[in-house]
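S.,

As promised, the glutamic acid run. Input:
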Amino acid sequence: MKVSEIMANLERKYGHEKEYLQAVREVLESIEEVYNQHPEFEKAKIVERIVEPDRIFTFRVSWVDDKGEVQTNLGYRVQFNSAIGPYKGGLRFHKAVTPSMLKFLGFEQTFKNALTTLPMGGGKGGSDFDPVGKSDAEIMRFCQAFMLELWNCIGPDQDVPAGDVGVGGREIGFLYGMYTKLARRYNVGVLTGKGATWGGSILRPEATGYGALYFTQHVLHKAGKDIKGCTVALSGFGNVAWGAALKATELGAKVIAISGPDGVCEIPGGITKEMIDYMLVMRASNRNKVEDMATQFPGAAKFTAGKKAWSVKCDIALPCAFQNELNGDDAKELLANGTWCCCEVSNMGCTPEAIKTFQDAGILFAPGKAVNAGGVATSGLEMTQNAIHLGWSGAEVDEKLHYIMESIHSACVKYGTQPDGHVDYVKGANIAGFMKVAQAMLEQGTI
Ligand code: GLU
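Predicted complex:
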């Protein structure tokens, strides 16, 4: 295969799908060399098949807001690849959601899920519904209307959605309630990220952030460093940032900045337990304003409008919010301030320019599909508990999460170690994930 030819073809077909093309290019450039050593992949046209989703459901979602006005949004489910298991991946509710965004996320999910060691295919879904400023009742009515269309496409052995940006435990509850009503099936395994009393796994809410910090520790240890005493800047204040702040603090790091779409909150003394708890309140408020942290903790947290977390001097940068939230200029600013490690916790959080800037400077960099895989991995553990009708203790889940993150790190080292001895985590994660899915597709024939 020639990446340039495949990309030219995709650009002709999907020229306006920028995020999707960006995600595909990154993976193909990473795997090109290894792929070309496997003529059997070439013969089965694995690359041409793996870049296209199996199918995409698109549907209209109409609902009534608190003023009694009818609103209409678009809903989607992208079933990307099922070679190694049922489709698995979150739902994103955000005003900027497009098919391109969900295709990129579904594509990434396919390789991420392969890295987890668990049998899960890749999927993603969501809506251009904007949760900002919505009441709980509006969120509920929207989730119910969304499920009116989705219920027939999903199932514990078929496709298992979960949370993502804009979808947390509250939304999963509303979605699950409507699912049981429509499907008259009460298998809790149809969704993950559920409440602890109705099939949810202990530690699932924390898992993405915890897993990301376990992975960061492996990256640091491999480079002869430790997170204890390091300063950390992170973006976002949703579920992922919350778990990351909790674990980073527990491991002895100092979280000195969090950010939101409105600006950055600097916390020179390091984030406290009360502040971390308050992140949950901020998320539940649907205000989407990080300034609220500074209002709640005046003196300890200082808000600056319009600035990103990447303007704050730190050892370790952890993007935890959205794709392309850290660009080439941000990367340069971080480097100028002495940052020596960036672990992407959000999906495709760094632009290609930012990744190149970090790699050229020789600092530690690891990509989202490895770093954040602990979230979906723990969803996989939730599916297992649901299937065997048992609930594991927090300690059991945490032990398994540790093992999974360690396995992902080892896979990255196996496939990403370069002739000079340094580990290219982007290559490592992409090749390891790809090889597993490609091999499964090959063995299952042309379907
Ligand atoms: N949305 C998360 C991700 O990007 C979790 C998906 C899941 O738990 O299925 O991996």
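The pocket of glutamic acid is lined by residues 88-90, 162-164, 192, 347, 372, 375-376, 379 (CB under 6 Å). The first helix runs from residue 3 to 14.

- D.
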